[in-house]
């Protein structure tokens, strides 16, 4: 466990994962759907969502399923763009568990008729999404890190330095990537009955 994170129980302890100390469990202040766990950055605007979903079988490939889950969370009026995709290894899951990730952005439409955007409207939101495919359990686990970039709220060092076209993602996204990597390293299923798919261990 890194010094700035701690183990969190998800879904009543059926899963565990390390998340940053500064993230608060949203269920402590409002109702959260049973298939989701949501954590908010207490000192910023970022959020982490862990969601259990029925496995997407159409489209058929893992890459297409990854894009499907991303498109599912993009607001209808927003513009989404995927910048990077990759695969990952999960040391605490059964061998060869499919795991795929993407880095994307969503951009809201401009204010109508030249009006000023509402306060705290993000210029864009960076999304770091991980898709874990549990084939025997017919389940997709989707971990989404949402990082809104709100004018005047980002790190001073990021001023003018964020340019996704040039691969310059800024400190907020870099921190999000570190959180994602810690999720990969520490996410573990303690009770496979959560998925109604029977028992399964790291040995398969």
Describe the structure.
- The chain is of the alpha+beta class.
- The chain contains two helices and ten strands.
- Strands 3-4-5-9-8-7-6 form a seven-stranded antiparallel beta sheet, with helices on both faces. It has a three-stranded antiparallel beta sheet with strand order 1-2-10.
- Strand 8 (124-134) and strand 9 form a beta hairpin.
- The longest helix has 17 residues, at 170-186.
Shape: globular
The DSSP helix count reads: 2
Q: What is the number of beta strands?
A: 10
Enumerate the spans where pLDDT stays under 50 for 5 or more consecutive residues.
none
Helix vs. strand class: alpha+beta
Task: Determine the N-to-C terminus distance.
Answer: 25 Å
Largest sheet, strands/sense/barrel: 7 strands, antiparallel
Summarize the structure.
This protein has 204 residues and is α+β, with helices and mostly antiparallel strands. The protein contains two helices and ten strands, in the order βββββαββββαβ.
């Amino acid at each position: 466990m890194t010094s700035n994170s701690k183990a969190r129980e998800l879904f009543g302890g059926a899963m565990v994962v390390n998340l940053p100390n500064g993230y608060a469990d949203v269920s402590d202040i409002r109702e959260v759907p049973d298939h989701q766990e949501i954590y908010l950055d207490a000192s910023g605007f970022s959020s982490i969502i862990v969601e259990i979903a029925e496995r997407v079988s159409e489209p058929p490939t893992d890459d297409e399923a990854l894009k499907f889950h991303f498109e599912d969370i993009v607001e209808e009026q927003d513009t989404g763009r995927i910048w990077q995709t990759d695969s990952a290894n999960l040391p605490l899951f059964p061998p060869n568990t499919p795991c795929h990730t993407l880095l994307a952005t969503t951009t809201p439409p401009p204010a109508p008729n030249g009006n000023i955007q509402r306060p705290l409207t993000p210029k864009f939101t960076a999304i770091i999404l991980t898709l874990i495919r549990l084939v025997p359990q017919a389940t997709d686990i989707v971990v989404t890190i949402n990082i809104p970039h709100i004018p005047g709220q980002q790190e001073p060092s990021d001023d003018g330095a964020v340019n996704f076209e040039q691969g310059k993602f800024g400190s907020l996204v870099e921190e999000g990537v570190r959180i994602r990597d810690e999720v990969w390293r520490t996410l573990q299923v303690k009770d496979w009955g959560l998925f109604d798919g029977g028992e399964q261990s790291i040995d398969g």
